[in-house]
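Re: [help] complex structure
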Amino acid sequence: MKRSLPARGVETLLGWGGSLTGVLLFVALWEWGSLAYGSFLLPGPRDALAALARLWQEGEAAAAVWATTWRAMLGFAAAALVGTALGILAGLSRTLGRALEPMSTVLLGIPPIAWIVLAILWFGSGSLATVYTVMATTLPVSFAGAQMGALTLDRRLREMADVFRVPPLMRLVDIHLPHIVSYVFPALVTALGVAWKVAVMAELFATEDGIGAGLAIARVNLDTAAAMAWIVLVVALLLAAEHGLLRPLQRRMEPWRQAGRGGH
Amino acid sequence: MLSLEGIGHVFGMERVIDRVSLRVAPGESVCLVGPSGCGKTTLLRIAAGLVEPTEGRVNDGFRRSAMVFQEGRLLPWRRLLDNIALGLKAMGVPRRERLVRARALAAELGLADRHDHFPHELSGGMQQRVALARALAVEADCLLLDEPFSALDVGMRSEAQALLLDLLARRGIAALMVTHDLTEALRLGHRVVVLSPAPGRIVHEERVTRPFAERDTAFLFEAAGALLRHPAVAESFLFQSREVTA
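Output below.
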């Protein structure tokens, strides 16, 4: 459908207005809760922002963000690579699929907190335990996405490829991969969210730095405002990674999914 | 020349095709008609080499045969020109050259202003023209068409049929086309071959001598009526006592 430019502008503004209303409503509730329960139990948004500003000025926040980011990203990247590769193979070969599926189910069933305990026992406290936990919890997610993609390859397109004698490599790149990617991407977006949360949780137990460690210190100091500040930071990071990195990447890689230009 | 000799085919326990022999000469257009489930699509896939027949032999003497499917089967993630050029890419034609050829075909089939569109942005008729262009791009001298226009509405179908006739005649391409529509077969074929309900056998063959240009609606209905007066044809089309499976 084609609409005039001003109409679309107004619509975008209304969309933003809607989101903004939601955010403001949330902040208002937060403020109200803080007034009702007192600033010790629930510090208001202003206290949290002040704490965040303090952490930032002391350089603590930037260091923590960096530490958590690289751990989460390393674990996520490893899980994405291994999970996607295994998922594709499991989707293409029934035998391998049957063999790997129960394993994936078991992995999915193990709570992240259990992984942390195991990882600390195996690797000792430190970054490796965090990275490993992130990888172990996000691997089944990317595996399932890739497997579903490979399982649903269109038999009719394969037949078409036979008719036009499409060679194996081109068949993979032009016919199979675009389809699989369309399944893998949403799975990766989910996995990314999980990765960040699990990284923070693992850091709480396993490391001396990072956002999770910051939360642990806030707990020891009974500094609720600082805890809130860390939470705000994690959410901001997650949103930035999803909308700044993954979604634009998806739009670039899958232009064919976007709304039509009205082709009739 | 494409020849099918004594083709029989069995799916599991069920026989779908029974001793069919058929020839398509260069430049000739043969239409296979029959009720749903008579194995005509299977026969076409056997002719294309996609299915190994249980009995009989296929000899494809054409330089290159290409298939046009009922539902286009375009790649949803490729733009129009890349879809047309798919077969050329498979043959290893360099990108620049295959785009030049795809562009020329797009122009010939009336798709010139849609080069960068994705399939979902095109109408059903246009998608089918892209599929046709894709088959022509590999310079096929024999087209195997599986109910290519059955998903189009009446006006579009007539237009697409005219376009196909024009392309076949201009390039001297042979065609083996499957349809369940007698009038379509009578409009597009030099020969019309009627199959029985499953297991499919050839029950009648009709040579249509009137030139394509003179096959107007009145002629088509009259010829279809005449064809249906043959008992074997009538049995295939009119009296279907058995359950029909698509």
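The longest helix of chain A spans residues 168-206.
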